[in-house]
Design a protein that fits this description.
The protein has 492 residues and is α/β, with parallel strands linked by helices. It has two domains: 266 residues, Aldehyde Dehydrogenase, Chain A, domain 1, CATH 3.40.605; 184 residues, Aldehyde Dehydrogenase, Chain A, domain 2. Helices cover 38% and strands 20% of the residues. The protein is built from 15 helices and 22 strands. The longest helix has 21 residues. The chain binds nicotinamide-adenine-dinucleotide.
């Protein structure tokens, strides 16, 4: 399949920047081939896009379009994504290295997100509330926030973009999106689809470029009312500081170091399979990866043995080969980071039960591959247990009591997600209540729905995406009071 999409910024309804001298090569992480060359924007393009979004919002073009009509355009985007699913999945696998099966699944999820926000676009028009003043009206209405800056990461490029684009559009905002500079292809394609679906010029703008230039401009600009960011915790902190310049609304989806607690009474084989699936699809580059396994002591040795046996047969390769279970990491830089993280784990005393290095297979030498890795003898103070890592690396800790398991699970600066495996319903519910995380899965891991809010406790973020809260992030709440009495009410 050819890559046949616009390779430009999209500002005020126009594709622009094809003649730019500053360009960036987009690399296939499986073989390091250049798959596309895109213009590299900077503050200049970011300012132009922000100005277009500001002027369009202030004209009221989109905000005053009836919500049901906006919803129909958002629904049309979902239909076009479904129509072009195969091309989008191909672009995502090419750009990120993930398997086609996974990318196809992502595209179905993404279309589902647009459909969900199309459905609820006109369902939260506000309410009348009880007024303490006789003969008066007290209304609560929701309005769009204004101009939204949206910054996305490279691991789920279009999925993360959809969690921002769909609710922002449904709620009547205008926006400027900056995708990760290393994985812009599917976002470019979806901007083509949004144009085809009838999103008016100036409503949705796209600028390609780095975080230090385009991202920083979006975060500091006084003309941006809200910044929605998904990415690493250190970048999140910088954006938080930058956003304080004009007290922007802030939505942050940051990292995770997610515990997966396995009790001895769980269904053993399912828990083993899902403990691996919870980490090794997309090579552990998932904010919600269950990389911190916490296993009851009585089954610990048998559990580790079963994990290792299954991992031995794991097939690494091209995302386009049907039998590939795990693709490469995203970049040379990220591979080096994962290697360093693993090295530190070894130095701190963790034992490599399997993996721990790059594969020796000659066919994988051009890609950024790292072997699926399991560390045992882990303790909670080790950096591999506390830091995100963002690679195919599982750490295993032991516990003897439920209380100890919960103490370990919560011993983290993060609070994004966690899992519990047990056949004791009461225990499962007790644990779910104790786990300080935005999502807890019981006998499941890494399952998302458009209607279920997603986000983190603690340093995993601020705010929620998906579900009704994901739409509310893109609205301001206004109270309107009308006195129907002939005289003003004199409170003083
Ligand atoms: P990153 O923080 O390096 O980059 C994310 C985005 O921020 C990119 O578009 C980048 O260009 C931009 N950026 C970088 N510096 C910036 C700055 N100073 N100002 C503004 N923008 C800037 O993250 P990444 O490496 O692309 O993604 C991996 C991280 O994303 C992991 O930590 C992962 O946990 C997190 N993540 C979280 C979720 C979630 O839902 N919580 C989902 C996916 C990924």
């Amino acid at each position: 399949m050819d890559v046949n999409i616009q390779m430009q910024h999209y500002i005020n309804g126009k594709w622009t920047g094809a003649d730019s001298e500053n360009t960036r090569d987009i690399i296939n992480p499986f073989n390091q081939e250049v798959i596309a060359t895109v213009p590299e924007g900077d503050e200049k393009e970011a300012k132009e896009a922000i100005a277009a979004a500001r002027a369009t919002f202030d004209k009221g073009v989109w905000a005053t379009t009836p919500a049901a009509e906006r919803g129909e355009i958002v629904r049309k985007i979902a239909e076009l994504i479904q129509r072009d699913k195969e091309e989008l999945a191909y672009l995502e696998s090419l750009d990120t290295g993930k398997t086609m099966e996974e990318s196809r699944g992502d595209m179905d999820d993404i279309a589902g997100v647009f459909r969900y926000y199309a459905d609820i676009a006109d369902k939260d028009g506000g309410e009348m509330i009880d007024s303490p003043v006789p003969n008066s009206i007290s209304q609560v209405v929701r309005e769009p926030v204004g101009v939204c800056g949206q910054i996305t990461p490279w691991n789920y490029p279009l999925l993360q973009a959809s969690w921002k684009l769909a609710p922002a559009l449904a709620a009547g905002n205008t926006l400027v999106m900056k995708p990760s500079e290393i994985t812009p292809l599917t976002t470019l394609k979806v901007f083509e689809l949004m144009e085809e679906a009838g999103v008016p010029a100036g409503v949705a703008n796209l600028v390609l470029g780095s975080g230090a230039t385009v991202g920083a401009e979006l975060s500091t600009s006084d003309d941006v009312d809200l910044i929605s960011f998904t990415g690493g915790i250190e970048t999140g902190k910088k954006i938080m500081q930058a956003a304080s310049s004009n007290v922007k609304k802030l939505a942050l989806e940051l990292g995770g170091k997610n515990p997966n607690v396995i009790f001895a009474d769980a269904d053993f084989d399912t828990a083993v399979d899902q403990a691996l699936n919870g980490v090794f699809f997309h090579a552990g580059q998932i904010c919600s990866a269950g990389t911190r396994l916490i296993v009851e002591e009585s089954i610990h040795d048998k559990f580790v043995e079963a994990l290792v046996e299954r991992v031995k047969n794991f097939k690494l390769g091209s995302g386009f080969d049907e039998d590939t279970q795990m693709g490469p990491l995203i970049s040379a830089e990220h591979l080096a980071k994962v290697e360093k993280y693993v090295q530190k784990g070894i130095e701190e005393g963790a034992t490599v039960a399997i993996g721990g290095k790059r594969p020796e297979d000659p066919e994988l030498q051009n890609g950024f591959f790292f072997l699926p890795t399991i560390f045992t003898d882990c303790t909670t103070d080790m950096s591999v247990v506390q830091e995100e890592g963002f690679g195919p690396v599982i750490t295993v800790e032991k516990f003897t009591t439920e209380e100890e398991a919960m103490k370990l699970a919560n011993d983290s600066i993060y609070g994004l997600s966690g899992g519990v495996w047990t056949n004791d319903i009461a225990k499962a519910q007790r644990c779910a209540a104790k786990m300080r995380m935005g999502t807890v899965w019981i006998n499941e891991f890494n399952l998302y729905f458009p209607h279920a809010p997603w986000g983190g406790f603690k340093q995993s973020g601020i705010g929620r995406e998906l579900g009704k809260p994901g739409l509310e992030e893109y609205t301001e709440t206004k109270h309107i009071f009308q006195n129907l009495n002939p005289e003003p009410i004199n409170w003083f």
